[in-house]
Amino acid sequence: MSNNGHAILLVEDDHNDVLLIKRAFQKVNIANPIIVVNDGEQAISYLAGREPYVERALPMLVLLDLKLPRKSGHEVLEWLRQQSTLRRLPVVVLTASSESSDVNLAYDLGANSYLVKPVTFDSLVQMVKTLNLYWLILNKRADVSDE
């Protein structure tokens, strides 16, 4: 298992959102590879290193949608924070929901940040620029180990 810390795990079930987010990352010239999983079960399998993700790279950041099939983003976050080797992994919730109950629960479960998906592509690009500056450049990351 590689722990190179360069990949970004995008947990998103909406194909159009995946394409827009990838496009925004390209427009901002973020070179980090984006690994996409489409539901909560896949996210947990990936992070746990289960088949077919045994040779996965541990991500430096998780972008997590809340409204996912099979397991919700809240369930993924709750699972992640219970894993001694993964609990320090930064998780940015990136979702369409601005409901205070979703925001509060995400923070209660250990989210590092909560972002509401913007409506326009230009706004998404601005959000990705800020995300890049803070989470990928300025933020001092905790040691995350899977040993």
Give an overview in words.
It is built from five helices and five strands; from the N terminus they run βαβαβαβαβα. The mean pLDDT is 89. Strands 2-1-3-4-5 form a five-stranded parallel beta sheet. It is globular, with a radius of gyration of 14 Å. It has a single domain (8-138), classed as Response regulator (Rossmann fold, 3-Layer(aba) Sandwich), CATH 3.40.50.2300. The chain has helices at residues 15-27, 40-48, 73-81, 100-108, 121-138, and strands spanning 8-11, 34-37, 61-64, 91-95, 113-116. The protein has 147 residues and is α/β, with parallel strands linked by helices. Helix 2 packs parallel to helix 3 (73-81). The chain is 39% helix and 14% strand. The longest helix is centred in the C-terminal third of the chain and has 18 residues, at 121-138. Strand 3, helix 3 and strand 4 form a beta-alpha-beta unit. The modification 4-aspartylphosphate is found at residue 65. Keywords: Phosphoprotein. This is Chemotaxis protein CheY.
Listing every helix as H and every strand as E from the N terminus to the C terminus, the arrangement reads: EHEHEHEHEH
Query: What's the arrangement of strands in the largest beta sheet?
Result: 2-1-3-4-5
CATH architecture: 3-Layer(aba) Sandwich
Intertermini distance: 10 Å
Report the C-alpha radius of gyration, rounded: 14 Å
Q: Runs with pLDDT <50, length 5+? A: none
Mean pLDDT: 89
The CATH topology turns out to be Rossmann fold
Which outline best applies?
globular
CATH class: Alpha Beta
| Helix content estimate | 25-40%
* Number of spatially distinct domains: 1
